[in-house]
Amino acid sequence: xxxxxxxxxxxxxxxxxxxxxxxxxxxxxxxxxxxxxxxxxxxxxxxxxxxxxxxxxxxxxxxxxxxxxxxxxxxxxxxxxxxxxxxxxxxxxxxxxxxxxxxxxxxxxxxxxxxxxxxxxxxxxxxxxxxxxxxxxxxxxxxxxxxxxxxxxxxxxxxxxxxxxxxxxxxxxxxxxxxxxxxxxxxxxxxxxxxxxxxxxxxxxxxxxxxxxxxxxxxxxxxxxxxxxxxxxxxxxxxxxxxxxxxxxxxxxxxxxxxxxxxxxxxxxxxxxxxxxxxxxxxxxxxxxxxxxxxxxxxxxxxxxxxxxxxxxxxxxxxxxxxxxxxxxxxxxxxxxxxxxxxxxxxxxxxxxxxxxxxxxxxxxxxxxxxxxxxxxxxxxxxxxxxxxxxxxxxxxxxx
Length: 400
Ligand code: MN
Description:
By secondary structure, the chain is an alpha+beta fold. It is 35% helix and 25% strand. The chain contains 11 helices and 16 strands. The chain has helices at residues 41-57, 63-83, 137-143, 149-154, 191-194, 199-208, 212-225, 257-263, 276-301, 346-351, 358-379, and strands spanning 2-11, 21-26, 29-36, 91-92, 94-101, 108-115, 119-124, 127-130, 174-178, 185-189, 232-241, 304-309, 312-317, 329-337, 353-355, 396-398. Helix 1 (41-57) runs antiparallel to helix 2 (63-83) and helix 6 packs antiparallel against helix 7. It is rod-shaped, with a radius of gyration of 44 Å. It binds manganese (II) ion. Residues 34, 190-192, 230-231 line the site of manganese (II) ion.
């Protein structure tokens, strides 16, 4: 088993107005991307690619997982470019390494993915070698024997990449595997380093500075000192004896969420039995459950109405139209009959005349009888003037 330590640095350089490089450090996954495309395109492409790569690979354990993450990153950059006029044509290089499971047992390997002309190097046993192959115009000419590596360094088309991520719906990415050996040092970098600093000088820094972070910053400083014509981005990963704090889940097992979390070295969150917020929520729910019927009862029972039962006027508590299952109840049977009120008052009484209180219901009945009395007096002019019949004589009694 091996464990990984790492360091990184990125810099705009001495000439460029923006840094279109991006880097990803999400052990066991590391990546450098060098974006290209006008306006904001380059920045968006490299940042998007690494964002999706990282998110897609989270909890993953195999080479296939890494390749799937690369496909998703490509698709996202492509989709974004299609949706936005300003981003059309954007793309990015990608060099990425991930320590993944290999075979059935505990074996592990580095999967190294490359598209474009960013590079991954390895320093092993003092030997410095480039693990990736550039996808560039000059690289193809070198391989075809048309120019020498030295000529390539000054070739006018040395900036042209022949493959990039996000410029087509699908991507053709190289992938190789390298066994991790304690003492190995891996370097991922954008061309802003390799155009300014020769391989021998890079190797010398990697040998001299033990701290990966220090080495990364030293390499950036050297590239800038040599002109810094491009953005410079460095990730250095050291392989050490031991075991990662982050233990990848067994590749053969199905990846459920818990295993994913374990793979990332996170604690699986246990559902807590009863939190303060849950208690508050339950209390609120109980109140709500109680409040609904309570308010219905209040609504149904908060008023009185005067109606007719047989010949008598009756005061009910409730509403003439029953609310849900709350039927009105008789509060008082009065000794006032339909004969004591004007005929015109009877139809509303049969419907039920609602009043907001028992007192108002009494007043209503008193008014009805007063009106009837007044009408009777008007019809029979003979009787001597008399005081109004006190309503108390028509008093009511409780119905119980
Ligand atoms: Mn570049």
